[in-house]
Design goal:
Length: 105
């Protein structure tokens, strides 16, 4: 499945996010973070859920999730206060807020 938002594509089969033809995320956890939020974009995803999903329940530090969010935002150019792709819900978690279209390939 390929998910498109703004001028980005997340390709589940190739495990990459592209802007045009160019891959933009190289860190596995940053890809997994965006992918998990995108799949659950109908709701807020909690810190606990992200720790379970991305680190198997054992994040190395309390800052692991925020650091991963920051890396994903930098790669997507979403590190401004506007938060057009990944929105922080203070004290709760994160939500994928960009409009998404899907295609099979």
């Amino acid at each position: 499945m390929i998910y498109r938002f703004f001028d980005f594509e997340l390709d589940e089969e190739k495990f990459e996010i592209r802007r045009g033809e160019d891959p933009v995320l190289t860190q596995r956890k940053a890809f997994d973070f965006v992918h998990h939020l995108l799949l659950h974009r109908d709701r807020v995803v909690t810190h606990g859920e992200l720790i379970d999903a991305l680190w198997g329940g054992a994040a190395r530090s309390l800052s692991a999730v925020p650091q991963c969010a920051a890396a994903a935002r930098r790669a997507l150019g979403d590190d401004t206060p506007h938060q057009a792709v990944i929105q922080t819900v203070r004290g709760r978690g994160y939500r994928f807020v960009a409009e998404v279209t899907e295609s099979g390939s």
